[in-house]
Structure formats: structure tokens, C-alpha cells
């Protein structure tokens, strides 16, 4: 049934990543496939409405796919969320792809978070982190287990050696505090598109795959010994993060890019999964 | 009584800051004076042993002063700690000056922290922050009160516009997580000493004085409404920070620069104030 009028004749699919460069697309497909195949037994199918799995604005200048799979209950997985977004803006095309997975309160191990924000073919913001789920100041043992023993810092150090890479600072103080001390938050600016594709293929991809491997092996691998109070604390902190992340990130950008009506529909669908 | 043989004939005093440039010294003297005069009614005199207030190594290549004043009990102040350190190293002279004040569990407002690490006349690491005393992820209202409403981020943005300023990342993941999202953590590298003195006089000094003013007016200004559980939490978190900071920072650098014996004496005196 063609209830939803499609711009250009057909709906777009999540795994197509239709607007980004080949190495960028290859990376996203590999990360999502690895994540889904490793966590398959804990994941429910994506039950988002069709007009949230793919949505666009009235004029057809902005398109996006959203792919959310909730975790089975009980399992280690709260949900995984993948997305892409393409938007023609006066300054050029904006392309954002993201993949994140939140764990359940059966563990306090870090979540997984990756986002690639391409504001032009020669400018890319690369965000990759295992955001902590406890206050690291009060729990240095947690810092040791998940960040020091896993040597996550070496990826950051590798990237810093590439001349086109500069630190990136989120404009939101909350987001800035949410990430771990080993977070990769960089802006890559190249002289040409070929060099950008080379950096994505050789550096961004290998680092993202390694960090996902670390997360799957060390974080998404089993329950952690926690008391009832600990589980309540982690659940409360997770809820706060989900609420604030929507408010700061999507809550401000979606209405701007897709209009109030589309944004409200998409945000309501996300809220439903988050609650 | 001349029990402690002094290199060069006389002991050195904290407020002299004898080894740093004039603008660096002027800044430290002004910050310490402002801090002490504003908090005077809550501060006890410095009771450190003479050989901890000033200490040096056997060969006379490393000198340091330490100035710690505990807060009256009950008061908002846990302690204030000022220090300078001078060390002749093969690569050149290392000069560190610092000023920090920890608040008591009568408030959960942020502490004050400043450190200037000069590894050569043309290289300076500038650390300035009001480190939070709660988990900001769980308490966005705290972030709003102390970091957003105070517009602390603008100092960081001002500094980033100076071409000689680059971000600085502590090698300790724990220290990196301890600071707030508005923390100034930069390395300044200049072509000559005159330009460095200019940057210290015009930018570093004005920012440091403004942040100290913000801290005195917004943080060190009164009790905060907290339950018993909150006070216990803050006290526990503060203890952890003090313990880890000594372990990571002084515990590794002092033995290297001053020898085991001097380091043990100084660390024991600091531990006594911290407990």
C-alpha cells in the first residue's frame, strides 16, 4: 500500500547508507553486521513504524533511516540504535551515520557509541566511545577494568599523529561529560576527497572495528556481579542519559532539518523504545 | 636553630615564587592573596613542619615550597593548598606552581584547581578548573548551576583563539575524568619568552582571576541544601579524589625529583592534612 508518498519513487533502506562514500558505507555495514550477528540471540526485530524507519521532509531535501532493535528481557541488551541522515543544506550536504548500543541493568559495563558527521566531502567529525555507566571518580577499579586494561587510549594516540586530525569539542557540556576519558572526539579536515576516503578506509575503520571488538569481548559479554542498589543506580543513570541525549541532540536538530511534524513522529517512536 | 642545612644559605618562602617570570609570579601572588583574604575567617594557619614548607634535594638542583591551610571545623573549607616547585633537569628547568582549594561536605559545590607547569621559558601547560563534586551525568541541574549559568566555557573559547594554544591531555585517565566539561587544559608554546610573558600577563592571568572570582562568588559562598546521604556521598568522593590525586601526581613525581626520603616526608605531611 502506497500510503506514504515517497520522494523519488521508493523508500530507502537502513543498510543502504545511500549518500556516503564507499569506505564510509563499507564501515557502517560491517559494524552493524558484526553488532547484529554477535548480539542476535538477545535482539528483537525492529518494530518501528515504516514512516519512522524511513522519513523525509516535505521538499525532499532531507532523508533519514532509523533502525532500533530492543533487547529481549531479560538480556544484557537494552537496545541497539543505528541511523543515517542526509540533508541538503545551503552550505552543502550534511550526512550523519551512527550506531550505538545501550546495555541493560544486568551489567554496569560501558555502552557503545559511534557517530560520523560529514558536513562536506572533506570534513568529518568522528565520535567513538564506550561511555561509562558509573561515576569513574568514585570507581577507579571500573576505570582500570574497562579503560586501562583494554588500552583504549592507544586509538586516540594513533589518530592524533595524523596531521589532518584535530580535537573536536561538543557544544553541549552534558555530552562532553558523558563520554569516557578515552573517547575519540575528532574533526578530520582534508585537502581533497581522496585523502578523506583514505583516512576513513585505513584509520577510522580499523579503529572503529577494534573498539567494537573490545566492547563485544569485554562489555557485552556477561552479567556483572552487582547489588540491587547498584542496578537501581545504573538504571536511573541510563534513563537520565537517554532523556538528556534526546533533548540535546535529536530534540533540537530533527525539527530544524525535517519540520515539526516529522520530528514529533520520530521522537515519539524513539521515546517509546526508550521507556 | 640551623638544623636543616639550607642550600644557598637561606630557606625560601612560598609567596616569593622565586624561579618564575614576573607575570607568572604576579599572578600567583594575586590569586593566593585573593583566596586567603576572602576565606581568611575559615582558615587555620599553616602548621606544616618547616622542612615540608620548604624542601630540596641533596644536590640542590630541586627546591619546593608547600603551603597548606586547613579549614576551621565546621566551615565550608576543607583546605587550601598552594605550592611551587623548581627543578633543574637535563632538558632545562621545570617550574610548577599550583593553587587549589577543596570545600567541605557542608556544600557539594565544585572545588578550585589551578596549575601552571613551565617546562621551558617558551612552553607552559595551563590547567584551570572547578572540578565537580557530583556525577554530572546524573545531575544536569548541577551542571546548569555551576557551569552553564556561570558561562565558564567562554574562557576556554577565548583561549582557543590564540594561535600558540593547543589542547593538553593529561596522561592519567583518572585526572582526565576528574575535571569538568569546561576545564581549561592547554599547552602554550611560543617562539620567544617575551610572547609567553605577554600571553601570561594578558590572557592566562585575566582568565585565572575571573574563574577564581566565579568560584568565590558561586561556590565558596554558602552551605547548600543537602541530605545526610548526599553529604556522605560527597565526603566519600572527596576522599577518593584526594587519595588518587596524591597517588597519581605527587606519589610518582616527588620521589623522582627529590629522592625517596624527602618525598616520603612531604607525602606523609600532606596525608596528615588530607585525613
TrEMBL record, chains A, B:
<dbReference type="GO" id="GO:0009507">
    <property type="term" value="C:chloroplast"/>
</dbReference>
<dbReference type="GO" id="GO:0051743">
    <property type="term" value="F:red chlorophyll catabolite reductase activity"/>
</dbReference>
<dbReference type="GO" id="GO:0015996">
    <property type="term" value="P:chlorophyll catabolic process"/>
</dbReference>
<dbReference type="InterPro" id="IPR009439">
    <property type="entry name" value="RCC_reductase"/>
</dbReference>
<protein>
    <recommendedName>
        <fullName>Red chlorophyll catabolite reductase</fullName>
    </recommendedName>
</protein>
<dbReference type="Pfam" id="PF06405">
    <property type="entry name" value="RCC_reductase"/>
</dbReference>
Amino acid at each position: 500500500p502506497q500510503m506514504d508518498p515517497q520522494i523519488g519513487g521508493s523508500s530507502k533502506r537502513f543498510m543502504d547508507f545511500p549518500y556516503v562514500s564507499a569506505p564510509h558505507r563499507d564501515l557502517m555495514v560491517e559494524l552493524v553486521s558484526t553488532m547484529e550477528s554477535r548480539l542476535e540471540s538477545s535482539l528483537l526485530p525492529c518494530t518501528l513504524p515504516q514512516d519512522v524507519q524511513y522519513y523525509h521532509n516535505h521538499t525532499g531535501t532531507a532523508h533519514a533511516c532509523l533502525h532500533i532493535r530492543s533487547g529481549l528481557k531479560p538480556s544484557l541488551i537494552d537496545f541497539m540504535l543505528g541511523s543515517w541522515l542526509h540533508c541538503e543544506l545551503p552550505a552543502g550536504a550534511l550526512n550523519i551515520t551512527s550506531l550505538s548500543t545501550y546495555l541493560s541493568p544486568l551489567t554496569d559495563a560501558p555502552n557503545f557509541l559511534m557517530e560520523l558527521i560529514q558536513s562536506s566531502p572533506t570534513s568529518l567529525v568522528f565520535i567513538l566511545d564506550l561511555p561509562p555507566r558509573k561515576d569513574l571518580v568514585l570507581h577507579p577499579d571500573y576505570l582500570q577494568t574497562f579503560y586501562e586494561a583494554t588500552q583504549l587510549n592507544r586509538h586516540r594516540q594513533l589518530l592524533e599523529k595524523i596531521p589532518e586530525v584535530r580535537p573536536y569539542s561538543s557544544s553541549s557540556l552534558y555530552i562532553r561529560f558523558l563520554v569516557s576519558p578515552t573517547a575519540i572526539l575528532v574533526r578530520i579536515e582534508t585537502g581533497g576527497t581522496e585523502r578523506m576516503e583514505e583516512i576513513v578506509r585505513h584509520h577510522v575503520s580499523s579503529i572503529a572495528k577494534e573498539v567494537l571488538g573490545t566492547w563485544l569481548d569485554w562489555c557485552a559479554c556477561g552479567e556483572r556481579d552487582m547489588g540491587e542498589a547498584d542496578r537501581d543506580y545504573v538504571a536511573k543513570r541510563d534513563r537520565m542519559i537517554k532523556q538528556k541525549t534526546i533533548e540535546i541532540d535529536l530534540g533540537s536538530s530533527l525539527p530544524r532539518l525535517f519540520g515539526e511534524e516529522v520530528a514529533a513522529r520520530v521522537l515519539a517512536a524513539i521515546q517509546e523504545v526508550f521507556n
